[in-house]
Amino acid sequence: KRIAVLASGRGSNFQAIIDKVSDGTIPAEIVCLITDNPSAYAIERAGNHNIPVSVISFSDYPDREQYNQALEKTMIKCGADLFVLAGYMRLLKPETVRTFSGKMINIHPALLPSFSGLHAQKQALDYGVKIAGCTVHFVDEGMDTGPIILQSPVVVLNNDTEDSLAERIMEFEHQALPHAVKLFCEDRLEIDGRRVIVHDTPS
Ligand code: GRF
């Protein structure tokens, strides 16, 4: 399978996928990194593994529509079977989501549907939950609302800060996202309405 990754920042989730592709855990090749941030460290990570990079920066386009068109054209050109949003901080327009329906997944640092959107770890801490976590889901036209593939629980400790909790959740993200990518690449995910069925063998 061919994987494209979309990232906006440090790219540690992107790196986790690179590592699992390199060691053969994920039967796929990463065909490109797409980023909206020319200074994303994810670009360095791609360079270390000779992964082609496309920078589609919002400020390079006169308006949102042209930005979206450039992004969708780039995604189609890279011909991936799966698009992984790994810390990609922009919403994709509904038409793009429909174009890649069932072929795009996202990692969110909370147990959805709780705490969608930004600063999810802080939302969890401020709410006072005892269990936080992360979610890997298919992308639909909402924000963080698509069918859930995997979730990992993370205990919140008395002395947790936003940073300490985010760091602990991140460790689970680096396991959950590559595992979800592996399941997709092995054709073991079946979307049944809102539910995702995980098969033991290719379905
Ligand atoms: C991760 O916490 C991810 O869940 C969220 O943004 C962060 C990206 O981190 N969407 P990185 O760029 O993968 O290090």
From TrEMBL:
Matching CDD domains: FMT_core_GART
Pathway(s) of this molecule: Purine metabolism; IMP biosynthesis via de novo pathway; N(2)-formyl-N(1)-(5-phospho-D-ribosyl)glycinamide from N(1)-(5-phospho-D-ribosyl)glycinamide (10-formyl THF route): step 1/1
Catalytic reactions on record: N(1)-(5-phospho-beta-D-ribosyl)glycinamide + (6R)-10-formyltetrahydrofolate = N(2)-formyl-N(1)-(5-phospho-beta-D-ribosyl)glycinamide + (6S)-5,6,7,8-tetrahydrofolate + H(+)
Segments forming domain Formyl transferase N-terminal: 1-181
Residues passing through the membrane, by range: none
Any matching Pfam family: Formyl_trans_N
Enzyme Commission (EC) number: 2.1.2.2
PROSITE patterns the UniProt entry points to: GART (PS00373)
Protein name: phosphoribosylglycinamide formyltransferase 1
Species assigned in the record: Methanogenium organophilum
